[in-house]
Design brief:
By secondary structure, the chain is an alpha+beta fold. Helices cover 33% and strands 31% of the residues.
Length: 311
């Protein structure tokens, strides 16, 4: 097993493996990862067995720590669909040896949640235990299993019906600036900012038009609600959701989310993901936020962070 640092000339080989991986997530492709290359020191790795690429590891360097990846919600080892358990163990042996050789003191591994896998793909968790990995953080996310979805809450049904009375209908949009302004105003109340700028959102959409979509609801020209969706094959994920006070009163976001859920099921998605409702490194649960997701039929799924001491 050979471990080498990613180089730009290997871009096509990297992206080809992502397409055929057991967790084929588009935001691990170099065209997505490198939109924020100025913010992170890339430390991605590629693993070859007998000259054949069998795994890639999206990662960034943070001082003496190797993180998978600092700019993404989760990272993990991306494995070829053909590799078996013994090969995965050899990959992790090579990973830890490589990290030790470069002077890293620890590695933070963000495991990929099971819904994003096209095949069983948890050999990595077993390999982590072989290297003494410790669970250091657990966030709680919310996912709807679309083939066995619990019923909408009465309050949610009422708001969706209210939106229908106003004639509110979602539409595909390219108004990234307008949506970003709305999102920023919502997050500002909580002392936060969007991860992406409007220019970055527009750039990423241009690179991944089949995977990234903006849907909005307007009334008399005013933007009431918007959702940025990331489509990962069998999973539709709400990357951003936002609504104005007027939109909240009219049930705009409720109608928008329900439409997105129904359209995702019609497309053949198995899961609809809302993302995490935890704060302070997973220590605090935002009950109001998760209750909103649960009222649409979502239930809990964890996002785990493991740490390996390199010594």
């Amino acid at each position: 097993m050979k471990c080498v640092a990613y180089q730009p000339e290997a871009c096509n080989a990297w992206d080809d493996l992502i397409d055929s991986a057991r967790t084929p997530l588009f935001f691990f492709k170099r065209g997505f990862m490198e939109y924020h290359a100025d913010r992170f020191e890339d430390a991605s790795l590629m693993f070859y067995e007998d000259g054949k690429l069998v795994a890639v590891f999206p990662a960034s360097r943070h001082g003496k720590s190797l993180i998978s990846h600092g700019g993404l919600t989760f990272g993990g080892m991306l494995l070829s669909s053909k590799v078996r358990a013994d090969t995965v163990l050899a990959v992790f042996n090579a990973l830890v040896a490589h990290a030790r050789g470069l002077g890293y003191k620890k590695m933070l591994y963000k495991a990929i949640p099971y819904v994003f896998a096209s095949q069983s793909c948890q050999e990595d968790l077993y390999a982590l235990t072989r290297h003494g990995a410790v669970l250091v953080r657990r966030d709680l996310s919310s996912v709807i299993h679309l083939d066995s979805r619990p019923k909408l809450s009465k309050g949610r049904k009422w708001l969706i019906a209210r939106a229908a009375k106003f004639g509110l209908k979602p539409e595909i949009s390219t108004d990234w600036e307008g949506f970003h302004d709305l999102l920023s105003s919502v997050l500002e109340r909580h002392g936060a900012l969007p991860t992406h700028t409007p220019e970055e959102l527009r750039l990423l959409h241009s690179r991944f038009e089949q995977n990234i979509e903006l849907k909005t609801i307007r009334h008399e020209g005013r933007l009431l609600a918007g959702a940025v969706l990331f489509r990962f094959g069998q999973v539709t994920h709400t990357q951003y959701l936002a609504t104005s006070d007027e939109g909240k009163e009219m049930g705009a976001l409720d109608a928008l989310i329900e439409t997105c859920i129904q359209e995702s099921a019609a497309r053949g998605s198995k899961y609809f993901s809302f993302g995490i409702s935890t704060e302070d490194g997973g220590k605090t649960l935002n009950s109001g936020l998760i209750n909103q997701k649960e009222s649409f039929g979502a239930r809990g799924m964890v996002l785990d962070f493991y740490e390996i001491s390199i010594n």
